[in-house]
Amino acid sequence: MSCLNFNVSHVLSQLNLCQYLPFHRQEIMKWNGWGYSDSRFLFNKKGQAEFTGKRYKLSGMIIPGLKEWFEGTFGANLQHKSPPILNSSAVRPPTLNEAFVEELKSTGVPFSHDAEDRVFRAYGHCVHEIFALREGRIGRVPDLVVWPNCHNDVVKIVELACKHNVCLIPYGGGTSVSSALECPSEETRSIVSLDTSQMNRILWIDEKNLTAHVEAGIVGQDLERLLNESGYCTGHEPDSMEFSSLGGWVATRASGMKKNIYGNIEDLVVHIKMVTPRGVIEKSCQGPRMSTGPDVHHFILGSEGTLGVVTEVTMKIRPMPEYQKYGSVVFPNFEQGVACLREVAKQVTPDFYLIFSSGHALKPQVSSIFTSFLDGLKKIYITKFKGFDPNRLCVATLLFEGNREKVLQHEKQVYDIAAKFGGLAAGEDNGQRGYMLTFVIAYLRDLGMDYYVMGESFETSVPWDRVLDICQNVKARIVHECKERGVQFTPLSTCRVTQTYDAGACVYFYFGFNYRGLSDPVHVYEQVEHAAREEILANGGSLSHHHGVGKLRKEWMSETVSNVGIGMLKSVKDYVDPNNIFGNRNLF
Amino acid sequence: MDSSCLLASLHGSDTLLFADMQHRDPMLQKRDEFEDMLEERRNSSDLRYALRCYTPVLYKGVTPCTAGALKNMVLQSAQIHFVIGQVSNETGRAVDDVQEEASAILEEMAHSLQLSTVRFFAFTLSKVFKTLFRSICVNEEGIQRLQQAIQEHPVVLLPSHRSYMDFLLMSYILYTYDLALPVIAAGMDFMGMKFVGEMLRMSGAFFIRRSFGGDKLYWAVFSEYVKTMLKNGFAPVEFFLEGTRSRTSKSLTPKLGLLNIAMDPFLKGEVFDVHLVPVSISYERILEEALYARELLGVPKPKESTSGLFKARKVLSEDYGSIHVYFGQPVSVRRLSQGKVDRGQFNLTPRHIPKRPSEEIHSFVNDSAYGLVRAQEENMVLKPWVLLASLLLQNHHGDQASGRARGMALDELTEQAVWLRDLSRQYGAFLHWPDHVPPPEVVSSSLSLHRGLVTITEGRLLRQAVTVLSCVSYRNQALHVFLRPALLASAVHAASSSSGKRKTDIFNSFSFLRNMFSNEFILCPGATVQDFEEACFLLVKTGALQVSQQEVVVTERGHRTLAFLTSVLDPFLQGYQVRVRSRLRYTEVLSSDLQKNALAALLRLGAVRKIKGYVGFDHPRVPGEFDKAYEWG
C-alpha cells in the first residue's frame, strides 16, 4: 500500500512543476491592497465601474449598477479621490542577528532582507493595516524573510532561532484579518518571517483511505486544482482560498463555505505535524479518531503561530462531485429568511452549502435584451404581485453538490421549506452570481479606499434564537457609533448568515463608511469595530467564528475562555516555547 | 470631598445621564418653554377635535396590533409555554388547565384600546379640563423629543403620580399631539368601578393585581404582556414609578418591578435600546387636596366606585389653576447601563427561562429608578404658593410654639417670599414666578387661589390639621429643591461648637440624617458623598457656608438661609422623635405617611424590632444619640 502511495505522489510531483507563489509575491500581488495586481475595480473614463484583468469571470466586464450603489450608499463622489501614496522607501533598515544569518547561510535555505519582501510580510488585511500602507506609513516590519522548502528546513530554522534567540513569525497566505501578522512593537529581537509558500507539494494521495498528505504552505486554489486533476477535492473553500494556506487554516481554525458538506478544518485534518522550539509534535498513526486524552491537535488548531510552524497535514479528500447545482431563493425579509434557514438546518441532511445575504448583488451587464426584459418581469412579479418590499427582501444563494438524484431531491426539499417561509425560487443565475462574488468582493474595498470609503467585514457565531437580535443590535450599534463619532453619511451596516449549524449560525457583518472630513478615520473605524464587537459579545455571539483572535481581539480572550482557560493556554505556551521564539503575541 | 475636587466635578454639559446631573450647578440647567394646549381648545370645536384624523407614527413604522392578536402572541410565547409547563409539573395540574388559567389572567389584565373610546375621552375631557383648569401647559420640545424617541426605540413613559387625573391627562396630551397612545399599567382597584374600569381599559389601561407575590404564572403572563408590547413597539408603555399616588406631594420611593420588566428586553438583547421618558406633572391645586389630608390623618381612603366618582362632581365647580406637564429628556437604558451591567450574563441560559435578577441588575435598576424619580422632581414646576406655604407653615409652627396665633403680616410674607424665591432659584428650582408682576400681587393672587387653606380660623385640631396637611403637601413640592442643603444645614446645626466645625463630624451627621430619612425622601442609595458635595456646593455658592479641607464655617449672612433650611427638616425630625418619645409640636407629625416612614427607618436602623405585631425598642443607644444630637431649644 505504501508503495502505491509512493507512486501516486511521484506522479503528482511530476505535475507540480510550476511554482505557484513566487518568492517575491509583490511581483504578481498588490502590497497595499487585496489580491492580484492585475485585478481591480475602477471607474473608467465614462464613469462606469469595471473589473480589470483576466482571472475572474467578472474580469473585463462593466458593472452597471455599481456606481449608483456606491454613490447612493456611501454618499461618495467620483470627483473626490483618495489614491494611495506609493512609497515603500520609508522602511527602517533591518536589525539582523549576524550569528543567526551566518548559520542560516550554511543551511542553504533562501532568505532575503530586501525592503519590499519584508514589508509585504508585515501586514495582513485589516482595514487599518491596508490604510496605513496606502498612506505610506510603515511601522515595525520583519528584519528577514526565509523560505524553507520542506519540513526539515523548518526544523533547522527553528533550531537556529532558539539558539540565537531570534523571533519567528510564520507567514502563510498573509490573508489574516486579526492583526496576527503585525510585528509587536515592543519586540527588540531580530524578527524573522518564516514564509511557507515554497512548501506547497502534495506529498501523497491515499485513495483507499481517501486522504492526502500535503505540505502546509500550499494555498487553497493550488491544493484544490491539484486534487481535482486526480479527481478529488477537499471541499474546504474559505473565501480567501485563492491566497490562504493550509497551515494558516490549521493555525486559525478556518472554515469554508462548503462546510455543511465537507466540514470545517478541524473535521478535515487527520494528522498534523508541527515544529516547535521543543521539537516536533505529531501523532503516531492516522487513526480516524482516538480516545487518548485531550486531542493534542486542538493545541495546534487555532494556536495562531504562537507555538510553532505547521509543516505537513494529512487531510481527508473526497471524489469530485458528480453533479453541482446552483440555486437561489428570494425572501420578503431577513426574518423569514433566517427562519427558513433554521428549519432547513433542522430537517435536511447537510448535502449542500448555502450563503445568505440581505442586500445588494453585483450584476455584470448582460448583452441580451431578452434576458434583461425577463429580469424586469421577474422584479415586477416579486415586488408587485408578491408584495415584497424591495428594500427589505433578501436572497439566499444555494449550491448543491453530490450525486445527481440526491441533489435534485435535496433541492426540492429545500425549496419546499423555503416556500413555507414565503421564499420564491429566484433561479440558478443568482446563485452562481452569489458564488462568484465571494472572490471578488474583497477587491471592492480597495475601490472604496480610492474614494474615501473605508470598509471591513467581521464575523461571529451565535445560537439560533439570537441570530435576529444580534443582527439588529450590531447593525444599529454601528450606525449609532458612527453618528456619535461625527461620520457625516449614514454608514453601510449590513449582515448575512453564512453558515448554519445544528445549534446556531455564523453571521457576517459588513460595515463601510465615507470618511471625508474625518481627521483620523482609522481611529474612528477602530472605535466603531470595537463597539460592534462588544455588542456582539453582549448579545451572546462568539469572539470569532473563523477569523481568529490575533492581536485585534485578544483583549476579550479571558472573558471568552475564562481565566482558567487562559491559564491552560499559557501553560502550554510556557512549556512548548519558554523563550517566546514564536513571538507574534497573538491570542493572549 | 475637599473643595477642589468639588469644583473639578462641576460642568455644564447637557447630558442625558442623571449621574452627571448631580454634579453640575442646578442653575445652569436648561428647560424648555411651555405652551398652553387648552388655548386652542377654547377657540375651536371640541367635537371636530375629537373626530379629527389621528395617525401617529409608531416604532420603526410597525403597524399597530389588535388587542386579540397581542394576547395570542403572549400566550404563544416561549416564556409562557415554559412557565405553564413548570407550574403543571410542580402542581400536578393538567397543562390545559394551567393554560386556561394563564389565558384568564391575561383576559383580566389586558387593555382593549379603542380609538372610539379615546375620542370620547378627548371630547369630554376637553369640556372638563376647560372648566377645571386655567391652562394645561406642555413643553412642546419635549413632545418633539418624545415623537423622535417613539420612532427610534421602544419608549416607556414615567409620569409622576399625584392625582387620578394623571393617566387620562397623559393620554389626552399624546392624542392632542398626534403621538402614539400609551398602554398604562393601572392597579386593580380601578376595576371596582365597573363601567369606568371598562372605559379606562378601552382607553389603554391594563390592570395588574396589587400583590401577587409567589404567583409564578401571574408574573410570567404579566411580564410577557408588558414586554411584548414594549419590544414590538406597538405602543409606549406607561406606568408610575412611585407605584401609587403620593398623598403628600413628596415623591415616593420607587417600585422596581415594572422598571425591571421594561429594561429586560434591552438587557437580554431583544431590542437595541429602550428609552425612558420621565414626565413631571405639576398641579397648581390638586383635585384630591382635602381627601389626601384626611387620608393621612387616618380617615380611610374611599373605595374607588363609579358612584363615588359622581359624588366627587362638586370638585368641578372650583378653580384648580393650571397644570404643567414637562416631558423630560428621554433616558437611554443602553447608555445608563454602560459599564454597570454585563449583558453577557444572559448568554448561558435560554432567555425565555425566567430568572431572578442578579445583584448587579437589581442595584442597577434601583439606582436608575432613583435617578428617574429625581429627574421627575427636577422638572416639577413650582408655583409661588409653594414657597408661601413653606413660609406660612414655619411661621405657624412658631406661633404654635409660643402660644400666639396672629398669623403673618402680608408685607412680611412678601419680603420673605422674595428672599426665598431667589434662594430656591439658586438651588435650581423650576419656579414659575411671574417676574413682570410686582411681588405683592403675586403673593395675593396665590393666596386667593388657595383661600380654602389660608383663611385659617381657630378650630378643632382635626380641622386645622387637615388644613395644615394640605399646606404641607404644597410645601413638599419644593422639598427636593432644599433637601440636600437642608440635610447639611441640620448637620451643621447639630455640631456642637459654634464657630468652626470639623468637616468629618458634619459629614457623619449628614450621613446619619440622610440614612434615617431614606424612606422619607428620594435619596439614591450609595450616593452619600455625592449628595454631601452637592449640598456643600450649593451652600458655598450662596455664601451661607465656607468649606475648607478641615472645617465648615457659617458666614454672617448664612444664618438666615440655615435657619430656613433647618426649619424645612424640623417637622420631619420631630416626627421621627415622636416615634421614639411622645411629644407633639408640629401638627403635621400626625400624618400617617410620616409615621409609616419613621417606623420603617427605625426598623432599618435597628432601633426597634417587630415582635408579634408589637414594636419595641431594641437598642437604647440610638434614641439617646438621636435626642442628644437633634434637640432644639
UniProtKB/TrEMBL annotation, chain A:
Keywords (A to Z) from UniProt: Acetylation, FAD, Flavoprotein, Lipid biosynthesis, Lipid metabolism, Membrane, Peroxisome, Phosphoprotein, Transferase, Transit peptide
Q: Indicate the principal place this protein occupies in or around the cell.
A: membrane
Question: Per the record's keyword annotation, is Phosphoprotein included, yes or no?
Answer: yes
Domain (FAD-binding PCMH-type): residue spans on this chain: 138-320
Broadest EC class assigned to this enzyme = transferase
In the UniProt record, which is one GO cellular component term? Answer: peroxisomal membrane
- Pfam families linked to this entry: FAD-oxidase_C, FAD_binding_4
The catalytic activity, as recorded, is: hexadecan-1-ol + 1-hexadecanoylglycerone 3-phosphate = 1-O-hexadecylglycerone 3-phosphate + hexadecanoate + H(+); 1-hexadecanoylglycerone 3-phosphate + a long-chain fatty acid = a 1-acylglycerone 3-phosphate + hexadecanoate; a long chain fatty alcohol + a 1-acylglycerone 3-phosphate = a 1-O-alkylglycerone 3-phosphate + a long-chain fatty acid + H(+)
Cofactor(s) of this protein? FAD
Q: Which residues bind substrate?
A: 445
Active site, renumbered? 508
Q: Which BP terms in the Gene Ontology apply to this protein?
A: ether lipid biosynthetic process
Q: What is its EC number?
A: 2.5.1.26
Residue ranges of coiled coil:
none
Chain residues that bind FAD: 170-176, 252-255, 304-310
The pathway entry for this protein reads as: Glycerolipid metabolism; ether lipid biosynthesis; Lipid metabolism
Subcellular location, record wording: Peroxisome membrane
Q: Give a short account of what the protein does.
A: Catalyzes the exchange of an acyl for a long-chain alkyl group and the formation of the ether bond in the biosynthesis of ether phospholipids.
User: How does the annotation summarize its subunit structure?
Assistant: Homodimer.
Report the family membership: Belongs to the FAD-binding oxidoreductase/transferase type 4 family.
Q: What is this protein called?
A: Alkylglycerone-phosphate synthase
> What species was this sequence derived from?
Scophthalmus maximus (Turbot)
From TrEMBL, chain B:
Q: Which UniProt keywords apply?
A: Acyltransferase, Membrane, Transferase
Pathway linked to the protein: Phospholipid metabolism
Recorded hits in SMART domains, A to Z, give: PlsC
The answer to whether UniProt assigns keyword Transferase to this entry is: yes
Question: Where does this protein chiefly localize?
Answer: membrane
Question: What InterPro entries does its record include?
Answer: GPAT/DHAPAT, GPAT/DHAPAT_C, GPAT/DHAPAT_LPLAT, Plipid/glycerol_acylTrfase
One molecular function GO term is: glycerol-3-phosphate O-acyltransferase activity
GO CC aspect terms? mitochondrial membrane; peroxisomal membrane
A Pfam match: Acyltransferase
**Gene Ontology BP terms:** ether lipid biosynthetic process; fatty acid metabolic process; phospholipid biosynthetic process; triglyceride biosynthetic process
Q: Where is the Phospholipid/glycerol acyltransferase domain?
A: 155-284
Subcellular location per UniProt equals: Membrane
Record family assignment? Belongs to the GPAT/DAPAT family.
Identification of the protein by name = Glyceronephosphate O-acyltransferase
Organism equals Scophthalmus maximus (Turbot)
